[in-house]
Amino acid sequence: MAKLLKTYVCQSCGAASSKWQGQCADCGSWNTMVEESAPAASPFAQKHHLQKGGRRLSLEALNVETALPKRLSTGIGELDRALGGGLVAGSATLIGGDPGIGKSTLLLQAAGLIARAGPAVVYVSGEEAADQVRLRAHRLGLGNAPVRLAAATSVRDILTTLGDGAAPALLIIDSIQTMHSDLLEGAPGTVSQVRAAAQELIRYAKETGTALVLVGHVTKDGQIAGPRVLEHMVDTVLYFEGERSHQYRVLRAVKNRFGGTDEIGVFAMAAEGLTEVSNPSSLFLTHRDEAVSGAVVFPALEGTRPVLVEIQALVVRLASGATPRRAVVGWDSGRLAMVLAVLEARCGLSFSSCEVYLNVAGGLRVSDPAADLAVAAALVSALAERPLATDAVAFGELALSGELRPVGHAGLRLKEAAKLGFGRALMPTNGEVKAEGLSLSRFRTLGQLVDHLLGRG
C-alpha cells in the first residue's frame, strides 16, 4: 500500500519542507508553514522513469512565420496602454492592488464597455453577491450592459457552467484567492488551492481562446498574496497603485509577454468611477507663482511615457547632540543615503546635523535612476535656501565618484518639458541631445552643479 506523505508548505513563498518549522528557510517569514497532504508515493512510481511511454512531440522550426496575436480593446485607453494594446485572446492577466483601490471598479467598467461593443463577457465574483456587483454597475452608468454575472467560488461549478455554451471573449475572476478546487484539501487562499484554481482557469482560457483576468489580493508589503508561481503562470501582471487619500491611480505593468513592461496607465477617481488622465503631469506638478527652495521638477520616464513630477526636499538644522531623521516618501531611502554621502564626500556639504525630508508630490512612486540629479539639486536648494527657477527641470544619474552619468531617452524628457512650458534643463553632458525652446545647462560632476546652484566660481 502506498505510503501517505505529509509536507509543510509556506503560505508566503510556496517553499515545501518535510518537517514543521517556525520560520521559512527560503523567505524568512514566521508562522507560515501549513501542513498539506502530498501525493502518495508507491514503489513503482519511485522506480519508474519517464523516458518511454509518452506522446511524441512535433518539433517546429524557429523561423516559421507567425501572425501577431489578436487583441481585444477594452474601450479604456489607459488600460489598453498598460496591457500593450489590449487583451490578447487566450491570455491570462493578473491584476493586484490594495483593498479599495479600484480594481473591481476598473474591471467592471472594462467589462461593460466590451459587452456593449458585442463580445460576450462573464464576470464571476467570489467576494460579493451578484446584486452588489449590479448596484455598482448602475452607479457607473453600466446598468444596461449585457454582462453575465455570477457569484461563485467553486472552480468546478464555474467551468461546468462555461462549458455548456460558447466560450466568452472575456472572463473576469474576482478574486483568485477566493476560488476553491475540490480536487485538493484546504481552505481557499492557501498555496495549493490558489495554484490549482489558477491552473485550471488558465488551461480553460488557452483551450478556448478566452481572455482571462484574475484579481489578486496583496500582502502588507504590496506583493500579490499566495505563491510566487502564480505570477509566473500568467502572461501579464498589473499592479494598481495609489493612495486612497489621493485622487489619482496608477496601473503599472511589471510583466507582459505580449508587450512592453514598466508601462503605466493613469486614472483619476471620480463620482462616476475611474476616468482616464491623458496628461499625467498635470496631476503631479504643483502650480505656484513664486519659486520655493527645495522644489525641483523631474521629468520621469514611465515605460514610453514621460511624466513630470515635483521633488520636494526639506532640511532642518538641529542642535548639537540630537539624532537627525531621514524620512522619504515616494523614493528609495537607500538611494537618498547614497546621494547625501556623495554630497558630503565630494561636494563639501554637511548634512550630518540636519534632518532631511524628501517627498515626491502627488504620491507617485519614482524608481527611475535619473532622479538622482533632481534629488541632489533639491537637497542643495533646501540646505542653502536658494530656490531654483520655476521653469527649470533636472535629471541625471549620480555615481559614487560624484560624476554625472547620462540617462536614456533624454530627448523624450526634454520634449515633454518644453511642451509644458519649461525653459531650461539641468542635465549631464549627454552627447548631442538638443531641444527646441529649452536652454540646456550641462554638468560633468555633481560639484559643478553645486557650484552653479550656489553661485560659486
UniProtKB/TrEMBL annotation:
* Top-rank lineage group of the source organism: Bacteria
GO terms of molecular function: ATP binding; ATP-dependent DNA damage sensor activity; damaged DNA binding; hydrolase activity; zinc ion binding
* Span of the annotated motif RadA KNRFG motif: 255-259
Residue positions annotated to bind ATP are 97-104
Q: What's an example GO BP annotation here?
A: recombinational repair
Gene Ontology CC terms: cytosol
Keyword annotations from UniProtKB, A to Z: ATP-binding, DNA damage, DNA repair, DNA-binding, Hydrolase, Metal-binding, Nucleotide-binding, Stress response, Zinc, Zinc-finger
Q: Which CDD domains match?
A: RadA_SMS_N
| Lon-protease-like, as annotated region | 355-457
Q: Which InterPro entries match?
A: AAA+_ATPase, DNA_repair_RadA, P-loop_NTPase, RecA_ATP-bd, Ribosomal_Su5_D2-typ_SF, Ribsml_uS5_D2-typ_fold_subgr, Rubredoxin_2
Q: Does the keyword ATP-binding apply?
A: yes
Specify the RecA family profile domain's residue ranges: 68-218
Q: Which Pfam families does this one have?
A: AAA_25, ChlI, Zn_ribbon_LapB
The protein's matches in PANTHER family, at most eight in alphabetical order, are given as: DNA REPAIR PROTEIN RADA, DNA REPAIR PROTEIN RADA-LIKE PROTEIN
Q: Domain note for this entry?
A: The middle region has homology to RecA with ATPase motifs including the RadA KNRFG motif, while the C-terminus is homologous to Lon protease.
**What family does the database annotate?**
Belongs to the RecA family. RadA subfamily.
Q: What does this protein do?
A: DNA-dependent ATPase involved in processing of recombination intermediates, plays a role in repairing DNA breaks. Stimulates the branch migration of RecA-mediated strand transfer reactions, allowing the 3' invading strand to extend heteroduplex DNA faster. Binds ssDNA in the presence of ADP but not other nucleotides, has ATPase activity that is stimulated by ssDNA and various branched DNA structures, but inhibited by SSB. Does not have RecA's homology-searching function.
Query: Could you tell me what this protein is called?
Result: DNA repair protein RadA
